[in-house]
Amino acid sequence: MKLDLKIEGMTCNSCSNAITKRLSKFDFTSNIKIDHDAGTGELEVSEPVTEHKEQVIKAIEQIGYKVIN
């Protein structure tokens, strides 16, 4: 399932790369696209979606960014 996230705190390519690198460590994520200019993230997660979405949000926030939705 596709997740669309609004992410605050990204200012450059290094920010989006850090998030991409972190989310790539999960075996349940794929097609990760983080756009620091738009402040958005888009990725695919496998089932169970609710549990995996929570893990994605926690991972992003652990490295210093805030997920709005």
Explain this structure.
With 69 residues, the chain is an alpha+beta fold. It has a domain at 7-41. The protein has 2 helices and 4 strands, in the order βαββαβ. A hairpin with a 4-residue loop joins β2 (29-35) and β3. The longest helix has 14 residues, at 49-62. It is globular, with a radius of gyration of 11 Å. The mean pLDDT is 96.
**Largest pleated sheet:** 4 strands, antiparallel
Proportion of residues in helical segments: 25-40%
**C-alpha end-to-end distance:** 16 Å
The computed structural class is alpha+beta
- State mean pLDDT (0 to 100 scale): 96
Order of helices and strands: EHEEHE
Radius of gyration: 11 Å
Strand elements, count: 4
| Unreliable stretches | none
Strand order of the largest sheet: 2-3-1-4
Which percent band covers the strand fraction? Answer: 25-35%
Which terms would index this structure?
four-stranded antiparallel beta sheet; alpha+beta; single chain; 69 residues; 4 strands; 32% strand
Write the layout of secondary structure elements.
Layout: E1 2-8, H1 13-24, E2 29-35, E3 40-45, H2 49-62, E4 66-67
Antiparallel strand pairs: 1-3, 1-4, 2-3
What is the gist of this entry?
The protein is 38% helix and 32% strand. The chain is α+β, with helices and mostly antiparallel strands.
